[in-house]
Amino acid sequence: MTEPRLLQNFSGGRAIVVTDRASSLDVLTTTLDRLGVTTNPADIVGSIADIDLATLQPDRSIVFIDGDISDGAVLPLSAIGRLPPAPVIGLLGVSAPSRLKALMRAGATSFLRKPVHVAAVYPALFVGINEYRRHRHLEALLEDQERRRRGRRDVVKAIIRTMSECGIDDDEAYDLLRRRCMRTRQTMEDLCKDLARSSDGQEHGEFVLKKKLAD
Amino acid sequence: MTRQDLQVGYLFSSTGSYELVARSMLNGALLAAEEINASGLGIRFEPSVLNPGGDLSQYSALAERLLERNIRHVVGCYTSSSRKEVIPLFEKHDALLWYPSHYEGFESSTNVIYTGAAPNQHVLPLVEYLLAHHGHRAFCVGSNYIWAWENNRILRESVIARQGSVLAERYFALGETDFPQAIEAIIEARPSFVFLTLIGTSAYQFFRDFRTACRARGIDQAREIPVASCSLSEPELQAIGEDAVDGHLSSSVYFCSIESPANLRFLKAYESRFPEGPTASADAEASYNAVWLLARAAAAAGTDEPRAVKAELVRQHLDAPQGPVWIDEQTFHAYLTPRIGRSNRKARFDLVSEARAPVQPDPYLVHNSARFEAAAAPSLRLVS
Predict the structure, then answer these.
(1) Cα–Cα 20 to 30 A to B122, which of B52, B229, B303, B384?
(2) Would you call A12 and B107 a contact, using CB atoms and an 8 Å cutoff?
(3) What is each CA distance from A71 to A19, A65, A68, A85, B123, in whole angstroms?
(4) Which of A9, A33, A36 is facing B370, going by the closest CB pair?
(5) Residue A4 lies in a domain
(6) How many Cβ atoms are within 10 Å of B76's Cβ, its own excluded?
(7) Strand pairing of B165-172 and B137-143?
(8) pLDDT of B21-46, one tens digit each?
């Protein structure tokens, strides 16, 4: 799985700002505008619960959450990586551990101190968005590893049966199965699962296995 | 008409490793102030000139001295490191720094007006020109600071996107003049061009040594391995010396060779006021433009209060030596006209390329760069 490329031009992005102090956002919205990131008035909301989740795009949306509001609402997080549906950047007024922890739990991958300074916005976007992309990549890797781990039982079964039916050792059995995967463009786990499922009786199963491996 | 006295600070290193360009910038700013005082605009400039001597630590001390005297406008700085050194002071005092030099972008301070070229007005046009006319194999040599690092990144990404390659990047301390090893490496690698981001005395020495080394090997350096720069200007051509002055490419928004009534007027006034030199340059013109824009905006605002001056500034259009110049109200960078010149034996540039109209500044390359960084070419090896 290829490492994600760094995102460095944020043009075309959409900012959603969660704050109860919309009047103090001038520097942030003006700087975002210079960077090609739009902030529509409708996207400045008072609570996370007001965000229309269906419109969030992981590659285009950026959610700014003011750490000084505490309304209990949270963005839905993914099961494995605990990632929100779009990158989150925390707006920090008070840098107390409770606020930092709340923003980290909300999935923030970078922070902007309030009052927002013009020169801090681009670095916050750069780190926040690229860290989020890196986390998503790692999450996808983890999901893949988890899927493979679950399929390991079928792989072991298939190797043992191939050894027994073809009279070969485990390395040769693995090579045989691996070549079959390459030919059929399947993962090892999917092939072995398929072989295991197709054997509904010992004799029939042997026939299916030998025939499939011989193809 | 009530006359408005406007105190302004000029902060230029008229001594030190890049004094030649800085002196031409100071000259441009002084000339503009004298013209404004004689113009009947209703503004009288009183410049306080300070010289940090190219010493980074002196910039903030001298800027502080100006700001503590309640001077609200300072024209100055040449290197990005000096600009970044003083910006916090301008923010603290809510004053304006008028930065009159080309730079690498990725900045837009509320307290800076940028009258020099942004990267889409000098680096990108040069990269396009080099790739179209000289090939795709680059060798980068630069001074070891942000100007070189960032320009080389922009070049690298453009070259890689076109399946070209950057053969090497070599960096040297500011003021370094010992280049034999780097020159040997360049001649060995035979790139399509050298992308030079050395500044000041380092650059002049490199041009001389590279030409001499190529000549000794029978290489027509200007034709076979041209050197291209985004900062080379006329006073520096004179400093290189006549043996190595010709055939270098420079990307800039201003060259002395521009044939327009406004430029002829500017050059005549400049040469008559500063017969001892240094010659006018792009940065001298940017300084001249900065002071004129400040005067016009302050006259329109009726005060030197920075916020009022900024509000009026975006309404000013200047018939500058390079052509029309005005300030973009979103970024406070200038609309400028990109050009590429090739140096000749008279220490001037012949224009080889010119934009049809002033180009909008794009300091963050929002409209002029790919969304993602360029992917490095996969490093494949032959396996059978």
Answers:
(1) B52
(2) no
(3) 11, 12, 10, 19, 48
(4) A9
(5) no
(6) 32
(7) parallel
(8) 999 999 999 999 999 999 989 999 99
Q: In sequence order, what are the residues at sequence separation of 6 or more whose Cβ sits closer than 8 angstroms to the Cβ of residue B209?
A: B179, B180, B183
Give the number of A-B residue pairs with CB atoms closer than 8 Å: 46
For residue range A45-101, list pLDDT tens digits in order.
Answer: 999 999 999 999 999 999 999 998 876 678 999 988 889 999 999 999 888 888 888
Shared domain check, B72 and B132: no
Say yes or no: B108 contacts chain A, CB-CB below 8 A.
yes
Mark whether A27 and A84 lie in a shared domain. yes
Give me chain B's average pLDDT, please: 93
Same domain? For B112 and B124 the reply is: no
Question: What chain A residue is nearest to B157 in terms of C-alpha separation?
Answer: A8
Instruction: Give residue-wise pLDDT tens across range B193-202.
Output: 999 999 889 9
User: Quick check: B373 contacting A, CB < 8 Å?
Assistant: yes
Q: Which residues constitute the domain of residue A35? A: 13-140
B147 and B232 part of one domain: yes
Measuring CA to CA, which residue among A171, A168, A150, A148 is closest to residue A210?
A168
Q: Which of residues 311-330 of B touch A (CB under 8 A)?
A: 330
User: Does any domain span residue B371?
Assistant: no
A127 lies in some domain: yes
Task: For A27, name the nearest residue in chain B, comparing CA atoms only.
Answer: B110
Shortest CA gap A45–chain B (Å): 25
Q: How far apart are the CA of A9 and the nearest CA of chain B, in angstroms?
A: 5
Contact call for A35 and B369, based on CB within 8 A: no
d(CA A10, CA A12): 6
B350 contact A CB<8A: no
pLDDT value at residue A205 = 44
Q: Are B113 and B148 found together in one domain?
A: no
> Is B367 within 8 Å of chain A by CB?
yes
Chain A interface, mutation test: which of B84, B107, B108, B331, most A Cβ atoms within 10 Å?
Answer: B108
Q: Taking Cα atoms as reference points, which of B254, B210, B241 lies closest to residue B228?
A: B210
pLDDT in tens, B135-155: 999 999 999 988 899 999 989
| Residue after which a domain boundary falls, among A140, A167, A199 | A140
- pTM, rounded to two decimals: 0.85
Instruction: Please indicate, yes or no, if residue A2 is contained in any of the structural domains.
Output: no
* Cross-strand bridge partners of residue B168: B139
The answer as to whether B317 is a domain residue is: yes
Average pLDDT estimate for A189-201: 75
ipTM of the complex: 0.77
* Number of domains comprising chain A: 2
B31–chain A nearest CA distance, Å: 33
Q: Is B252 found in the same domain as B263?
A: no
pLDDT at B192 over 60: yes
B109 touches chain A (CB under 8 A): yes
- C-beta separation of B341 from A99 below 8 A: no
Domain residues for B39?
A: 4-117+259-336
Gyration radius of chain A over CA positions: 25
